Amino acid sequence: MNSAKLVFFALCIGVLSISAIGGSAFAAGEEPTRTVDWYMAPENKAALDAKLQECRSNPGKLEDTPNCINAEEARYKIRIFKPPVQ
């Protein structure tokens, strides 16, 4: 019985360690997912331009990521719904 508790304890420690390492890697290496509306906001134009440039410079790796998809959709909507210049 004691050996079963020891094994269970060791497994719990292992799972917690892996979770902590994975969580810190996520926090350090990944950006938050931005919405289409966020990219469309005028105050985020520089971020939109930077994200589009980043996505286009490495499409094989980034093209299908949520932020690249949302940035491209925002660019499309801005171009379609932008009032004509008079």
What's the SSE blueprint?
Elements: H1 2-29, H2 36-40, H3 45-57, H4 59-62, H5 66-81
Helix pairs in contact: 3-5
Please tell me about this protein's structure:
It is built from five helices and no strands. The protein is elongated, with a radius of gyration of 22 Å. Mean pLDDT is 79; it is low at 14-26. It has helices at 2-29, 36-40, 45-57, 59-62, 66-81. It has two domains: 1-30; 34-86, no CATH class. 77% of the residues lie in helices and 0% in strands.
Q: What percent of the residues sit in helical stretches (DSSP H or I)?
A: over 70%
**Helix count, per DSSP?**
5
Number of domains: 2
Q: What distance lies between the first and last C-alpha atoms, to the nearest angstrom?
A: 82 Å
Largest sheet: none
Kindly summarize this structure in a few lines.
The protein is mainly α and 86 residues long. Helix content is 77%, strand content 0%.
Name a few traits of the molecule.
86 residues, mainly alpha, 2 domains, 5 helices, elongated
